Amino acid sequence: MQVDRRIRTGRRQEERGCGGKATTLLRPYTGGDPLDRLSVVLMRTLARGRVLSSAMNATPELDLDSLRVHYPILARRNYLNSCSLGALSDRAEAYLDDFRERWHTMGASAWYEHWWGRLDLLRGRVAALHGAPAGSVALLPSTSAALSGVVDAVPRAGTPGRRAATGGGTPRNRVVVSELDFPTLAYQFAARPELEMVVLPSPDGVGMDPQQYRDAVDERTLFLATSHVFYATGFVQDLTALAEAARRKGAYSLIDGYHGAGQIPVDVTASGVDFYTSGPLKWLCGGPGMSYLYVRPELTDTLRPRATSWFATDDPFAFDLEGFRYRDDARRFELGTPALAAVHTALGGQELLEEVGWPTVWARNRALTRRLVDGARAAGFQLRLAEQEESRSAIVTIAMEDPRAAVAHLDRAGIVVDSRPGHVRVSPHVYNSESEVDEVVAALADFRDG
């Protein structure tokens, strides 16, 4: 199938530079203080196509053309794989370039004048996105590190107000997960022989019934550990119901939200969950190398992470080997020097989506998902997704006999998707167009019928 890529750019091809490649904004800066480079680059970025919506408006209008020019891959490919890796924006590149420039210009002194502040800025933006209070978010190198840190940090003896390790004299050594969770979550418990892992089956292969968790969690349960959004079906679980199922029996709720944050609303405070992990890799368009951990503030003082660092101590510059004290907030979970390049791309990726406005992002994703589902069903495909629209996300899996071959066929046609066993996984995001969604359905039908 031949498709005019100009349809996807939202701009005439001659505005794109040589060979249709996006003209870079990161050209050498030749005037003024080089430490003002970020503001200069961002001004150029905005001038290239301002996103015309406001986060203050509950349903702001999206100027799709102005948004798309910030993501160079959209001029080259039909990119429908944000659940694997969000598209890189020129805003994220601008932040990364600023990091590089300060490294060249200031060296280590940039830590004190700029980079410490970038860490605080990212924690604050993530907290705001998740409906979390200040001080409740930690930055970690991966979700595996975040989950492992939580598992080893909870009290292994009874604590006031929470029977975390014992329940009525019965040791708490059970963990409840579902068969639909991403393996990394379950592996944290499979690798600890002192814990018994209970894997709940899905009644339909798509989602879970909240009553299953209520029935399974008992006085022996240490964690109810599961996903906000299931990676292979896009099913959205009710965070409040999960938190309640754990709390009623004195267990912790540990939620892997990496497939949800940035594509659907998240409010950790309102839901009452104890721990929530997410990160910039997917829907937040910040790339790999980071994970975010929310810790319910009421629990912080009871938690003692066993893997630690000087970033986790309350006075890192005291250099006191015998005076280690945990920070009084979620930063007690942080490990060594963070990947600053990832911090900067995460800031840029999230900032651009914030300018679109989160209500717009979520509404746009719902609309694209609805179009994709309707189109795929009209084309005769079987889908693995929730029947109720409110339990769906922008992860749509389409049954195929040979999903890897289908993905390769689409790749040759300039369409980027992914596969999971027995299915092709399509994951549109706010920057995708309706024509791109229609194109992937048509291309899959051509593959099937060919």
Description:
The protein is α/β, with parallel strands linked by helices and 450 residues long. It contains 14 helices and 14 strands. It has helices spanning 6-9, 37-47, 64-68, 90-106, 109-129, 143-153, 183-190, 210-216, 239-247, 268-271, 340-356, 358-378, 403-412, 434-449, and strands at residues 78-79, 137-140, 166-167, 170-171, 174-178, 196-200, 221-227, 252-256, 275-278, 291-295, 396-399, 415-416, 418-420, 423-426. A 7-stranded mixed β-sheet has the order 2-10-9-8-7-5-6, sandwiched between helices. The chain has a 3-stranded antiparallel β-sheet with strand order 11-14-13, covered by helices on one side. Strand 8 (252-256), helix 10 (268-271) and strand 9 form a beta-alpha-beta unit. Helix 4 (90-106) runs antiparallel to helix 11 (340-356), helix 8 packs parallel to helix 9 and helix 12 (358-378) packs parallel to helix 14. The relative contact order is 0.15. The model is unreliable at 1-37, 39-50, 52-59 and 158-164 (pLDDT under 50).
Itemize the secondary structure elements and their pairings:
Blueprint: H1 6-9, H2 37-47, H3 64-68, E1 78-79, H4 90-106, H5 109-129, E2 137-140, H6 143-153, E3 166-167, E4 170-171, E5 174-178, H7 183-190, E6 196-200, H8 210-216, E7 221-227, H9 239-247, E8 252-256, H10 268-271, E9 275-278, E10 291-295, H11 340-356, H12 358-378, E11 396-399, H13 403-412, E12 415-416, E13 418-420, E14 423-426, H14 434-449
Parallel strand pairs: 1-12, 5-6, 5-7, 7-8, 8-9
Antiparallel strand pairs: 2-10, 3-4, 9-10, 11-14, 13-14
Helix pairs in contact: 2-4, 4-11, 5-11, 6-7, 8-9, 12-14
